[in-house]
Recover the amino acids of this structure.
């Protein structure tokens, strides 16, 4: 006799559950638990990583992220406005920039700034953090520009018309009326961009760093070779990334809820 | 003249439009419109949709750029490429069909933001003027609310108060009641009537024939981008001379009457 749809769905769920339990059980039986314990969770050997992992690593990760994001956001806003400009060469320039920096790997941009610029301009000397900020910020700006443009264009045209009708110049209408509304629209994708940047800051190692410039991933890598705790240092560093990124998501969600009224 | 008694309290300016032309691509929407609005006068623009009335209104404060002709508004030549449009628009209030209140600002802030940022009034003065105008539209207690906490009619009244807070000498209304629920239309029309009584110069695009008949000094019937007929409200609406006007009014005033 033919089964009904709900019967079929129930049998399918039972089968899925059996497969899931079987896979987990197999893994648990096959795994080398003592080995896992010593190479993943050897927290007792991590003493030497502290407090520098927090005071230097966490601090630098946040520092690199924040300066890159600030630079990327400022440049991204300029690019977004250029992309919406009536003067065509502005649009071409912005489009070219965005396509280029969105298309090349961040690590290449870092290398170009870290090694290419000093080769081309031997006299130019700037701090390590500036190199990180410029490279990661340029890439972030390309993404942020598209996000901001979409946000600005999502604000209804009538808002600009109302503002202009009240005698506001175009820039004032943009600053006072359009941007505050666009900001709330783009907050979630901007948070996303900041989370990506937090992780991308780990690429800074490619430039070669002094101990004071280490960020968390570099600390983890160093820990692997020096502490004999397997990849436990990486587990801890990974957890610290979550300590940064999860609150970011939570704050954004909270902010979104509290400003829900401004969505029309 | 309209039937309502006027007791001017507003400083009023007029507008003169001559041979105004506007095209979108090959589609000529305004085909040489000439129109005068005298200071303190209320002129209603009526006509079928697509006749160009809203475009005409939006040209007056240059939200749409005309292709030809001239517009003079309250001492400014709007069509002069050198004109300070922002200065000119400070004197021309605009009320939109979709209200276009700023959703991220409170009702009071909606009415003060341009006073502060454009006219550079002090915060206390701006608040005082905003409060007066909110009072005028019957929403004196609503200053702390946000636009989405108001009904459509209330939002449109705030939009009127916002425009009035700039002390305009002329007000443009672009189908101000078309987006409203039927039961809130009256409250907006009532406010507009008090403005007319107070001597505000008003150019109103509307489908509310009863309002036009009662409040307008003159009614202008447009169709196909030209002025077909204009004159005192009672004559154009009560006794139209042109067949196109007669046909339009018959359909508007008696929607169930259809020639098939």
């Amino acid at each position: 006799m033919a089964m009904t749809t709900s019967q079929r769905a129930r049998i399918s769920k039972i089968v899925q559950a059996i497969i899931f339990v079987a896979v987990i059980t197999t893994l648990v039986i096959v795994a080398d638990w003592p080995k896992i314990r010593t190479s993943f969770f050897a927290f007792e050997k991590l003493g030497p990583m502290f407090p520098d992992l927090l005071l230097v690593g966490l601090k630098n990760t946040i520092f690199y992220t924040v300066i890159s994001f600030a630079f990327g956001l400022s440049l991204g806003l300029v690019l977004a406005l250029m992309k919406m400009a009536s003067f065509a060469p502005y649009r071409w320039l912005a489009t070219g920039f965005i396509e280029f920096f969105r298309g090349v790997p961040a690590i290449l941009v870092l290398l170009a700034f870290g090694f290419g610029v000093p080769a081309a301009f031997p006299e130019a000397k700037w701090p390590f953090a500036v190199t990180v900020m410029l490279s990661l910020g340029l890439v972030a700006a390309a993404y942020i520009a598209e996000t901001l443009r979409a946000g600005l264009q999502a604000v209804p045209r009538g808002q600009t018309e109302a503002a202009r009708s009240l005698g506001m110049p175009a820039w004032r209408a943009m600053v006072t009326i359009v941007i505050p509304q666009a900001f709330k629209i783009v907050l979630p994708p901007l948070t996303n961009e900041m989370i990506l940047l937090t992780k991308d800051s780990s690429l800074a190692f490619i430039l070669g760093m002094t101990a004071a410039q280490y960020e968390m991933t570099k600390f983890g890598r160093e820990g692997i070779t020096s502490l004999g705790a397997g990849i436990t240092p990486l587990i801890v560093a990974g957890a610290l990334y979550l300590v940064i990124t999860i609150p970011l998501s939570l704050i954004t969600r909270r902010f979104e809820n509290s400003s829900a009224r401004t969505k029309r | 003249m309209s039937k309502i008694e006027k007791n001017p309290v507003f400083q009023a300016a007029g507008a003169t439009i001559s041979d105004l032309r506007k095209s979108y691509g090959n589609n000529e929407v305004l085909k040489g419109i000439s129109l005068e609005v005298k200071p303190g006068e209320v002129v209603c623009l009526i006509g079928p949709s697509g006749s160009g009335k809203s475009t005409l209104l939006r040209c007056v404060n240059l939200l749409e750029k005309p292709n030809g002709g001239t517009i003079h508004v309250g001492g400014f030549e709007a069509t002069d490429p050198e004109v300070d449009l922002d200065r000119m628009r400070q004197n021309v209030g605009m009320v939109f069909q979709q209200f276009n209140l700023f959703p991220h600002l409170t009702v009071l802030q909606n009415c003060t933001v341009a006073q502060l940022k454009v006219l550079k009034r002090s915060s206390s003065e701006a608040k005082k003027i905003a409060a007066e105008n909110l009072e005028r539209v019957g929403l004196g207690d609503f200053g702390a609310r946000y636009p989405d906490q108001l009904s459509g009619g209330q939002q449109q009244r705030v939009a009127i108060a916002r425009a009035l807070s700039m002390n305009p000498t002329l007000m443009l209304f672009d189908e101000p009641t078309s987006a409203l629920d039927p039961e809130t239309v009256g409250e907006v029309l009532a406010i507009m009537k008090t403005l007319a009584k107070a001597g505000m110069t008003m150019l109103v695009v509307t489908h509310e024939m009863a309002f036009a008949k009662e409040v307008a000094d003159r009614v202008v019937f447009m169709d196909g981008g030209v002025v077909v007929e204009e004159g005192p409200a009672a004559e154009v609406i009560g006794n139209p001379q042109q067949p196109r006007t007669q046909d339009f009014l018959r359909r508007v005033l008696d929607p169930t009457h259809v020639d098939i």
In short: Chain A has one domain: 45-263. Chain A has a mean pLDDT of 89. Residues 45-263 of chain A form a domain with the MetI-like fold fold (CATH 1.10.3720.10).
